[in-house]
What does this fold into?
Amino acid sequence: MGSSIRMGKALLLKRQTSWIFLALFSWALSSCSGDKKFLYPLPLPNEQIRLVENIRSYQYRHGGDIDILFVIDNSQSMKLLHDSVADNAALFFKDFIRRNSDLHWRVGLMSTAWTEKPYIGMDPSTILDSGSTDPVSRFREAIRKLGTDGDNNEQFFWPLKNAMSDYSWFFRKHAALAVIVVTDTDDGVDQWEGLKPDPYVTAGLLKDFKKGQPISMYGIFSLPDVGGMNCQGEREGIFYDRSRYRAFFMQFPSEVYAGCDPKFGENLSEIGKSIISSVPMYLPRIPIYIPAQPGTMEITYNGEPLLGGPDGVWDYDMDEGMIYFNDKTFFIEGVDDVVITYRRL
It folds into this structure.
């Protein structure tokens, strides 16, 4: 939390400094011309600001944002599945790398041992994203470090809940989320029932955490009833159809694949393509260089107010200095301008 506050203050200071510089530069220009008025005077605190922006001119400046969380079982029975993921990592990443210019992706890797720290991507020091050099090799190295010495009481829900609380930095506010699970058993088979997080409650927590952003689930399960492959699971009597995973996956758009499928690489590539197709692309984002007081911003289009906030069509992020539009279904042919009003912070 402290680092987020410091970052927010730093961004605010940076923006204020930029506007002060612009005001001084404008004064210098006006002084040279003999005009004593500022060309761009810095608005005073609490001053009302009104902007008119062509919203269509912003809609193609940015692509989509997607956070991809791998949760991979690292118990002793997982060696072959680890090798399959690592050997085919290039097939998964190829479409993301090809779209680096307009798709802002981020990848994290956690194990099913809930006491272990993430293996890559979940904090700024290990970030793995569209700006990373050689992401395939780094991901393969993280799989190697994951190993197969993890807890044999494999868990998914506790690591996911820990990620939301302890590694919230990974989950960008305006990004879609895809979760990929790779395992050969159910969640918490040896755990006392009273300690198992409820799949439906956990799904609700995740939806609340993402505040309306798209969430999709993908499973690669070595279980007898997945994909018609009759995979050999870690233990007999464990089936996807009766699993806690199925109860959770049913709450989201989801796809499942067999871990023993000889087309493992093709399936991993298809997961990548499916994730990309789930990302809202080319939604407008309008930068706000003079920060707004919380709760004072209003946006109108064609004379009508647009609903703001996480449940509306736009949301203002003061730390990022950006208005994010969540959809563009309100667009009317021939109407380009939005009017933005707010009070300066």
User: Anything to note?
Assistant: The domain at 64-277 is CATH 3.40.50.410 (Rossmann fold). The helical segments are 2-33, 79-87, 89-98, 135-146, 157-166, 199-210, 244-249, 264-277. Residues 1-39 have pLDDT under 50 and may be disordered.
